[in-house]
Amino acid sequence: MTINAKNLDFTALNEELRSAGPICRIEGCLGQRFIAAGMKDKSIEIYGVPGNALGAYLGGGGIVVYGNAQDAVGDTMNAGLIVIHGHAGDAAGYAMRGGEIYIKGNAGYRAGIHMKEYREKKPVMVIGGRASSFLGEYQAGGIIIVLGLHDDGKPVVGNFPCTGMHGGKMVLRGEALGVDFPSHTKQRRATDADMSEITPYIERFCGLFGYDTAGLLGDTYTVVTPDSNNPYKQMYVEN
Amino acid sequence: MAISYIFPEFEVVRNFDRCITCRVCERQCSNGVHSYDEDGKVMLADESKCVDCQRCVALCPTRALKIVKNDCTFREDANWSGATIKEIYKQAESGGVLLSSMGNPQPLPVYWDRILINASQVTNPSIDPLREPMETKVFLGKKADDIRRGPDGELICDLPPQLELSMPVMFSAMSFGSISYNAHESLARAATELGILYNTGEGGLHEDFYRFGKNTIVQVASGRFGVHEAYLNAGAAIEIKMGQGAKPGIGGHLPGKKIVGEVSRTRMIPEGTDAISPAPHHDIYSIEDLRQLVYSLKEATQHKKPVIVKVAAVHNIAAIASGIARSGADIIAIDGFRGGTGAAPTRIRDNVGIPIELALAAVDQRLRDEGIRNNVSLVAGGSIRSASDVVKAVALGADTCYIGTAALMALGCHLCRSCHTGKCNWGIATQRLELVRRLNPDIGTRRLVNLLTAWKHEIAEMMGGMGINSIEALRGNRLMLRGVNMTEKELEILGISHAGE
Q: Which residue of A has its CA nearest to B9?
């Protein structure tokens, strides 16, 4: 079913989505927020630019955006798939606990902040271009992969990545030279085990956006992990 | 190791004529104070570990025990109190940030105790609540601005979602993790029986408790622990936690040692990992951003649940509340600086925030002045200790109150203020199963229901005395209050006259 988003506010648009069948196409999207918030059984294509909090609390299903997305894509999403054929704004994947987000272009500030995982729920975010500052702040689980396929000459991540990180894994293509990681994290060149863990996600990224898998997988990758999952244990004295 | 400069705060006094060395005290003390000396056949005590929780005293079958304040004293003066001296020594020894529990214990003014309630004499008859109906029911949520009718003259009843409470009290947010499974079960069952609401705090909702959903407020805070679509739809309302009275401006941090078993499962994070709720919501830098979170939650729940925004009472609370009332929130909860906590840095707890009485009065007045009071309901929390505190809060403008510490005391809490250690001997603020078992949810439920049933009677008595038969008629009715022992400024902010006026 096709929904023309013109002149629909976000509540009306979500109502149409809910009453539509499992496969929907939104045309003329122009900044409507909260699209598919809390939904779990839809396959949605979006043409135009969705507004903030696209797919917030998403419980399953899939969203493909043929354009850029704004802030807080997949906020607290629990399952499902979000694909952005463009750039994403700030705080993409905020506190996501499950599902996968693929961004063809760049991500704004604080991507993957407080991403977490639990048992079989292991969220993945793949950013094709570069990520801005505070990438993976408070990261508590899941995998953030940044491929650095951008061509504007800027570094693969901005300032202060991994601040407060206490779980999960960040993977950056290349040697991450010049990136200033905090002292409570450890960096290493990706091992074979790391590579086999991320390979399916890179393959999926390449399949979605038409990149050469073999070429990307042949590169070196840097893996960042926290050195403790109890970062503040020593900070307090009982009073 | 250097000599510890700190002498024990309490003294364990054992009457050996009464002690039968049954060793109950030893088994009951998770702090390891009591021990049995096989050689001397006597009970011993290591007082340095005692937190004065009174568990051993309460369970000693021969009443052989008492815990008293140690009268060994530093050379205190008006500037350097014993507590301050002790804190210096602790920090010099450890280099640590001081960590405390429960509400601000400092001798700062408790305005409830300086406010007195009116009663009818001669000109306006008082009402006997035992004989006449008294309405203590309240509805929380955005109210309509006007009465609208359709073309056929029928009333248009499309009020935004409302919460119905049998009395103006709710249990405030205490997460599963900071308190035990049995404590949560007691709160949930009591709320259901009483027709009020309890609050999950930021710890997720245990699957066993989804059945209490109609009486549950589910909380969303900066860590988003246990938050997912089913959780949001499980409760009667959703609360966004922006701040907490005991620790305004800082986040929460449940240490990994408490993230075990069911707590890990309910928060949906691995065992042993710290649960860190950052101080800010990183997507909220403004009222407009708050509006975005409010509406993302409303969209995810199809506008069926009222959204509460909880903030700590701080200096510009009236302006902050005015912003929140325009953010699309249905209810504002304000938490005063005496509100409890399972753990907070001592300096924050004791020095940050303002009293709920002043904050509540200022917010109610500001929202009235701006003509937006009916946009939101107001919840006052932060050490509501009795039915009279509730009556005073309602008269200052609250729609309802949150109680936390008082509810825990009904469950057995003795205010030892050691929640952060996780060794609660009363089975409340602990995840150790052998301790959790000490709190029987049947008894806990009963005691909570007893407490609030008694409060409800007392509220009705006070209302009747004022000649008021509906709690709605008391809300914001500051003429029913008078102040004593206050400055003109304090009276002005509270919006009440001095006694005798």
A: A239
Q: Give me the pLDDT at residue B1, please.
A: 41
Q: Which of A38, A140, A235 sits opposite B299 (nearest CB)?
A: A38
Residue B332, min C-alpha distance to chain A (Å): 23
Integer-rounded Cα radius of gyration of chain B: 24
Q: What structural domains does chain B harbor?
A: 10-96 (3.30.70.20), 138-475 (3.20.20.70)
**pLDDT tens sequence across A159-216:** 999 999 999 999 999 999 889 999 999 999 999 999 999 999 999 999 999 999 999 9
Which among B93, B278, B300 is the nearest to A38, CB-wise?
Answer: B300
Q: What percent of chain B has pLDDT over 70?
A: 99
Contacts of A61 in chain B (CB under 8 A): none
Give the per-residue SS3 of B340-360.
CCCCEEHHHHHHCCCCHHHHH
User: pLDDT by residue (tens digit) across B52-72?
Assistant: 999 999 999 999 999 999 999
Q: Is B402 left (phi over 0), alpha (psi -120 to 50) or beta?
A: beta
Q: Is the alpha carbon torsion for B302, B192, B332, B342 positive or negative? A: negative
The string of pLDDT tens digits covering residues A179-192 is 999 999 999 999 99
Q: Do B274 and A233 lie within an 8 Å CB cutoff? A: yes
Q: Is the ipTM of this complex over 0.85?
A: yes
Q: Which domains does chain A have, with CATH numbers?
A: 2-229 (2.160.20.60)
Nearest CA in chain B to A117: B269
